[in-house]
Amino acid sequence: MPLLNADRLFPVDGPSRATARDLYETIRGLPILSPHGHTDPRWFAEDAAFPDPAQLFVTPDHYVFRMLFSQGVPLERLGVPRVDGGPVESDGRAIWRLFAQNYHLFRGTPSRLWLDHAFSTVFGLEERLSAGNADAFYDHIAACLKLPEYRPRALFKRFGIEVIATTEGALDDLRWHRMVRESGWDGRVVTAYRPDSVVDPEFEGFVQNVEKLGELTGENATDWQGYLNAHKIRRDYFRGFGATSSDHGHATARTENLTSADAAALFAKALRGQCSADEADAFRGQMLTEMAKMSVEDGMVLQIHPGSYRNHSAGVMAKFGRDKGFDIPTRTDYVRALKPLLDAVGMEPGLTVIAFTLDESAYARELAPLAGAYPALRLGPAWWFHDSPEGMWRYRQMTTETAGFYNTVGFNDDTRAFLSIPARHDVARRVDCAFLATLVEGGRLDKEEAFEVARDLAYGLAKQAYRL
Amino acid sequence: MPLLNADRLFPVDGPSRATARDLYETIRGLPILSPHGHTDPRWFAEDAAFPDPAQLFVTPDHYVFRMLFSQGVPLERLGVPRVDGGPVESDGRAIWRLFAQNYHLFRGTPSRLWLDHAFSTVFGLEERLSAGNADAFYDHIAACLKLPEYRPRALFKRFGIEVIATTEGALDDLRWHRMVRESGWDGRVVTAYRPDSVVDPEFEGFVQNVEKLGELTGENATDWQGYLNAHKIRRDYFRGFGATSSDHGHATARTENLTSADAAALFAKALRGQCSADEADAFRGQMLTEMAKMSVEDGMVLQIHPGSYRNHSAGVMAKFGRDKGFDIPTRTDYVRALKPLLDAVGMEPGLTVIAFTLDESAYARELAPLAGAYPALRLGPAWWFHDSPEGMWRYRQMTTETAGFYNTVGFNDDTRAFLSIPARHDVARRVDCAFLATLVEGGRLDKEEAFEVARDLAYGLAKQAYRL
Amino acid sequence: MPLLNADRLFPVDGPSRATARDLYETIRGLPILSPHGHTDPRWFAEDAAFPDPAQLFVTPDHYVFRMLFSQGVPLERLGVPRVDGGPVESDGRAIWRLFAQNYHLFRGTPSRLWLDHAFSTVFGLEERLSAGNADAFYDHIAACLKLPEYRPRALFKRFGIEVIATTEGALDDLRWHRMVRESGWDGRVVTAYRPDSVVDPEFEGFVQNVEKLGELTGENATDWQGYLNAHKIRRDYFRGFGATSSDHGHATARTENLTSADAAALFAKALRGQCSADEADAFRGQMLTEMAKMSVEDGMVLQIHPGSYRNHSAGVMAKFGRDKGFDIPTRTDYVRALKPLLDAVGMEPGLTVIAFTLDESAYARELAPLAGAYPALRLGPAWWFHDSPEGMWRYRQMTTETAGFYNTVGFNDDTRAFLSIPARHDVARRVDCAFLATLVEGGRLDKEEAFEVARDLAYGLAKQAYRL
After folding, report:
1. How near does any CA of chain A get to the CA of C348, in Å?
2. In CATH, which of 2.60.120.10, 2.60.40.1080, 3.30.1490.20, 3.20.20.140 is domain A14-48+151-465?
3. What is the pLDDT of residues A34-46, one digit of tens each?
4. Contact across the interface for A365 and B7, Cβ inside 8 Å
5. Which of A228, B346, C15, C190 is most buried (most C-beta within 10 Å)?
């Protein structure tokens, strides 16, 4: 039995499965558009071999190590670096064995689908990983990684990636993007503008970051107008490296539309370090609207990724730092939160604001009605914890009837796990075909329409929404 | 291929589909009870021909024009009137073409189901609407509308409507209802009592409205007891035109049960225009309980439709006014909100309070447990954005296990789109039969029981709950 | 046609149904672990015959009588005792007839599944209960109840119960548990520690309860350290009667982690009766963390059952008292609420905290991400209103992808309705097999893995999580 079931994620009943297969057959080979993600541009710049299997699949993947941790495996034993630089496991094989002997924990999870997809399609491994074959897997993958066809650029081509966007901070010099460009390689790797460190008064080093923003742009960034100009200049710079979007990951979806004087006063207060928590939140909200206004000018797409309580565990944060699987979703309001921004620019022709959510209760209640009305608003795909078969299914079931398909933007993989990218797109394509097949078989859509929609969901909508 | 699939909305697997068909066959022809809606009584009074196809299907339907608007079609080009009386498209054919060339936007939406149902069953059109056949559709529908069998009363009969309720404000003179009655026509068109303009201190012209209420009833309506009496008199008047229900669409589900003295003081403050937002909300909440108490006396059903953030876009509101597709659902609490009313009258024999929701997260958590306990409380059907196949399915899945079927009240179409009424009831009947079929095939219900429940959901429960 | 469909709750399509059957066949006969419930230990101590059918199935079951009440049947007519001792129906047959003639109200509810299961498997009744056969049912069940094989201990064995946990208050003398033990009977009936009356400053008689806690333990329980010691001593005492868990049912999931001095001051304030509502909530929250710390020492599992608005109807509470079907779920936050406890002990090896929810919107958004990260946290099964086929299905769909199967703890029946216990476990086993079958047929899980998971969900995980 092959590791991957050819009909995986399709409906089980005969007619729907047959229709899903027909739809999928026409889109499975479409190029991958990855308009929002977190791969490391250095990979494509240097094109160095990936390190050992554990460094590829376990140690950097918070989906994987948090699941092992939740069942009592210490992060140190998985090689996750400590803040204090103290010792952690460095033997890739030992990490891999621990991973393999706990592989049953991933049953029913999307990580399991992604991992098996990579094992099978990238490395030709056709057994289920287990304690028994851990060493064989390790040796085989390690041997592959030494070969030129497993280098980042070769995999980029093999995966059929048409374009991939990485995400860089506003102060980043984009050196790796420059190196990619100067190398003459024809892979299309673009950046995205992520200004957290200079728009969030609660970000570590906010004031210094704003000063650095000024230095980089020649603007007096501690003055409100200078600060806005500096953003425009950096956005230009990012666009020079292919950026078509900015990205914003605040704790809430709050936006504001203050007068220029009030915004300037709030900015000044932020620079003095005197903002209350609420004022800091208001400033972040104001900057979303400012960014949207800049988008009206420069055509960049604005992405809002709200609603995560970051670094929930004080203990894990202290010992291992940020982004260690302890970002927990919270309830998120969009109706009141987005109103200031939408009142300001929601009708602007040419503007695209893409909203994501970790709070699925907002799909049918808030997000689909908003996206089904405001011309500037589109719905990002099922995100993060919901980037999964059930999550995608709920997304389509709860957004389509009010927002339709054409107020959504296709799939984003949003990952730093490079090898999971084809797997994630494949899951999305299969689930969308499955969903469309149930509409066809339930008499809600003609099959000929479904072929068109399937193609739009897999390719066309992302191309259009992200101006790729 | 006909435009409508005969098995649409039924389960795909063979046994469930066969059972759904069997159930549906016994209820598809039942008369339509439409106990809550917004059709225009003038149609039935004057029985004039409907204007052109665009005025019938596009310009007045906020489901339709907001979807087009969300994809960049200006409302002016769809003929939606401007507040300032400025020019908008008046050529029905031009509007229709724009609609037809964007018809793909409705894929997967209930609007598509309703429109196709009307095209096929009312007009005999069996192609999918598109840019290519837009003119043919337009010409055919326009020609039909000139015929006597397409007049409102003829369609009313053709649709098999046993009774339809419209909704009028408390100050309405019900002239069209009077005209229907005096015409001798035997179609049953009743009104419903909607007192927003005289119970909401924040409604435009509240004080004048209350004064007018006094004039209409001969009561001193600016005195608390006179005000309550005036409501009773108007409710009597409405019952004289068939009303069996009142309807209340506040932003929240808040109710209050103040002492008479406190209520009178709050009312006086409202008349002085001195209520805070919270006090205005409290007054609306108090009036829900007052209306429920009147219902105990006069037998009218109380309907609560909360949770919509009305006219969300400041720009659309300014340019095009109310009800232009920008009413966005918000989170709604029922547990604390309904307690004062339920403590006051929740055990009254003969009282029926019907609660609706736009916040589906309340179905299983709050509404089914409340309706499954309080004798006076029933659950309204899946509403508005959730008046759709997936919405109805979620409604049954999330309410049945705790509230059963018999604490629900059958289907309401809640529409002003007359031609969508048979389609909407047909969708509800199909989805309910599909749901029942899955219970039968899953061994949770006997087939003979399912026939009985199907009939109750399509007809019996509405007849009973709304005293029709 | 038998009353129970052999394939009930399995998927309808052929391949999934066949797989579900195969899985179920291997686990249907596994012993029942009932680690959290509310059966009366006196039953097993005295082993007396159950009274008449109405007293067995109707009068004590709030699922049953609240549904009848919701449709207008007075609780008095169902024999539910009044607080004032006034007259209620005492004729079991009259109550039973009323129940039987309203049996259609339970269509589509889990109560119907449980009742039919007991009628069929315990009493051999194979007709659907109705007004027509009410007396025949009554006579047959009443006759059975007189037989020795229908006594509690005989049913315990017949049901295949390996261990059952009851729940007793902290001040309970556990006399029935003592009597069970001293009887020499080999059925395993254990207690669980439920300290509401001595940890909740708003509980009736809180101060006297704390004083009694001191008397029982020889500690000065009005002193903070003495109070904590007294809890430890009572926990020891409960462990002496098999307890492996404590249970906490607060209105919210709030936890606190105060300094010892602040906790002591808050406790003193509670004893003086001076806590505000918020301070009382904080104290309950602090006690959750204290209990968790004791669990680290003594190995008892901590169960959190939050989010019920208890005794919602003032009228029913006044007339019939607590627990009469008017406990209504409310929105519950876990992310902020559990952080203090998790920061304090969330990484402790050997600690198990089991969180339940009545707010399903928290499954995918909050609970699965938390349980999929913190080693100490596990998810309790679908609870109360969600202890039902659809509820269990939503639970697996919304928790598995992020938390996996192994951060859940198998099934709890959580009931005082002894005869429903085998039915409830059977429902859970069937639904889990159905869910696993869809994963297998959808290519997400190997069938051989599914056999292993099915066994873990039915038996292994509960055994492990509750240390049984």
Report:
1. 9
2. 3.20.20.140
3. 999 999 999 999 9
4. no
5. B346
